[in-house]
Design a protein that fits this description.
alpha+beta, Creatine Amidinohydrolase
């Protein structure tokens, strides 16, 4: 396994790529309203990314036909935006997106409430978000990669939720997906030793019911096997000599 260690110059480029993505999300999450289509969200997301002089890195990635993955309710990730998919009050919408700035990638995800949602849906969103922060408590030089995985599992499992196993976090840099793969569920091995200069995309994907998922006929959209709600929260982080630096957070958490 070859994990890239970024130079100081590369870290600055990653910081800027991720800072811009954080700003895009601050604007995009406020745009989501009942009555719009998932395609409307994609169009606005791409407009925002390009307004900063950047390129959406999801567009045409391995054939994916949009700039923003828009996944609604039981859709876990990689929902393809459509004009006829209208979001409504009470839905939860997971947005997953990234961009390229001077050759360097950023990646982040947020699940947002559409109007007033159920307390159960809000709890799922909150737990998924907090799972990220529980995991990165261990994202420190000298710890092992799977310390992050185990911390996420330890936090989420007592709620009775399912942690998606078919999809995991990843390294990121001059490619959207680099080594290492980062599971969100408990591992028997320790994993690699974390070192300063590693940039990682940590992304808990949590289902209200079973952890099992299926792929729709479009070969992209991942849905929960039991039709339960799913939430997703992701940031790109930097391993430092001390606490991890969350690069895509912006001013909105």
């Amino acid at each position: 396994m070859s994990v890239t260690i970024k130079s100081p110059r590369e870290i600055e480029l990653m910081r800027e790529s991720c800072r811009i993505l954080g700003e895009v999300y601050e604007q995009l999450v406020t745009y989501v309203k009942p009555g719009m289509s998932t395609k409307d969200i994609d169009i606005e997301g791409e407009r925002l990314i390009r307004s900063y002089g950047c390129v959406p890195n999801f567009l045409n990635y391995e054939g994916y036909p949009a700039s923003i993955c828009v996944s609604v309710n039981d859709e876990v990730v990689h929902g393809i935006p459509r004009k006829d998919h209208i979001i409504k009050e009470g839905d939860i919408v997971s947005l997953d997106a990234g961009l390229i700035y001077k050759g360097y990638h950023s990646d982040a995800a947020r699940t947002v409430a559409v109007g007033k949602i159920s307390p159960e849906a809000q709890k799922l969103i909150d737990v998924t978000r907090q799972a990220f922060f529980e995991g990165i408590k261990y994202a420190k030089a000298g710890n092992h990669l799977y310390d992050i995985s185990n911390a996420i599992d330890d936090y989420v499992t007592p709620f009775g939720y399912g942690i998606v196993r078919d999809l995991v976090g990843h390294g990121i840099g001059t490619s959207l997906h680099e080594e290492p793969q980062i599971p969100n569920f408990r591992q028997k091995r320790k994993g690699i030793l974390l070192q300063p200069g590693m940039t990682l995309a940590i992304e808990p994907m949590i289902n209200m019911g079973t952890w099992e998922v299926c792929w729709d006929d479009d070969d992209w959209t991942v849905v929960t096997a039991d039709g339960s709600l799913s939430a997703h929260y992701e940031n790109t982080i930097l391993i430092t000599e001390g606490e991890p630096e969350i690069l895509t957070l912006g001013t909105m958490k």
